[in-house]
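Notebook entry, cofactor series.
This is the third protein in the set we're modelling with a bound small molecule. For this one the ligand is zinc ion. I'm keeping the input format identical across the series so the outputs can be compared line by line later. Sequence and SMILES below, as received.
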Amino acid sequence: MYLGPGEKIATAGGLSISSYGKKSYSDSDAEGLVDILFGSDWPLDITRLTEGFPGSTRVNYESYAKGIAQKLKPRYHFVSNPRYNVFWERQPFSWEEVDNSQSRVTRFISLADFQTKDQKWFYAFKIDVTIDRTALTPANSTTNPYSVTSPPKRPMGEFDNIWDENNPERLSIDRESDKTRSKKKRKTAQIMSVNPESCFFCLSNPKIDRALISSIGEEFYLALAKGPLISGQTKSQLGCPGHVLIIPMSHVPTYKSLTFGGDSHKFILEKKKYEIALKQMYSEHGLYYVSFEINRKNGVHVHTQVIPVPENRVPLIESTFKEEGRKLGIHLKNREVHDEEEEYFKLTLPDSSTLVASIGTRNRFDLQFGRRVMAIILGIEEQSDWRQCFQTESEEQTDCFEFKKRFKTFDFTL
Ligand SMILES: [Zn+2]
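Returned structure with ligand:
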């Protein structure tokens, strides 16, 4: 679907979407309210009255874009401009006296350019057309930045690129010659053989199995495992397999690349929240939390697999992992991940302690190692290969329904 500047469409579900561009859209053309607004120019004043906007980021602000935003009052306002190539999400702000004095909230989000490695370039969100959820003013909202009188426009230099102190690499890429750049591109293409369009962990992939998604946060989401490990004991206690994946929204091979140059605290915190929520849910059904993850620079899309374990199997976890690892030359040690470490397998035990093994790029690492060992621990070795654990669509739907029902009270995103 192509949406030209100034055009407005309404989806069958009742969402109204519009976009703007400088030449083809003046604010006098804008009509009515919209749910989602797209553009490449940043509205004047949008970075005022808020925290967290990187001071080193230099952006050209446009008053025409502000005019359009003021008129259309979008619930989500997305801006993406390859010149700035920055991800930034403003704190929400509300409008007064809209729709018969109902309040309305705008979320402004700038996305980086398509497939940018270190910056988020897509955004997943829930929008409910029947109930205006945004009418509930979020706790972190600010005063409407458009409602205050603007100071004179910030002068812009010729070089209006981003100078991001946290990311010196970007500058070096901007400055390097086209020749090196294309060389680099070719190299990147080789490494990233799976792009987000064909990645089964990327929400931007239209073919992703949405029936398995069970919770969506800001930086991570939760999905049931495809072909899950199903232990009879677990299922009788929990009512579903409970084997889930914690997946970052960003298409990155390691957790380190996810937090590189950005606000790592936010990512770590949300992942932790999912871990705690799952732990609490399992515990309510007499089960224990075990998770494992593989971080490899040439990996595709990092994620953490979480599997609930019945009490009588807990004492087997550490010894079985160490023993099975030894057979394959995977030396699991009772330690944390070293700061500088990027390539490793990590197992988290029910008491939150971790077993870690470094995995060099030169050695081949069995990606099914974690699952295979968990199958041994749970006494269901025949389920070692997930491809042999095919579920029908209705089985998947039932599992997801049962899981969500139990997770609901612990899900912090609801
Ligand atoms: Zn991906």
